[in-house]
Amino acid sequence: MPGLKHLAARRLFKPAGSPEEGLFGSRSYAQLDPLFSGVIDPNLIAEQWDGLVRVAASLKNRIVSANVMVRRLMSSSPANRLAKALTHLGQLVKTIYILRFLNDPTLRQ
Asked: What is the pTM of this model?
């Protein structure tokens, strides 16, 4: 579970619009829109899904340690699409968890 220290300072992300709508798209989430400070690209996550599964399997099966994987991804070029997809996936999971946390009194306890 993501840590919730300084919850008010956490950045939330919404899905990017379709290519024809532009990066921010035309999606509106009513009262939630002011909470979002960035966008994620679900198409990038879908495109890199096989690579993300390979990374997860390598970590689960202890083929590679987490610190080696992080070092390898951090030292890759800024254009590395797998590293970007992993970042976007993490932002998506964190945003979903925080929104559930805010909406569910049982989870907050």
From this structure: 0.79
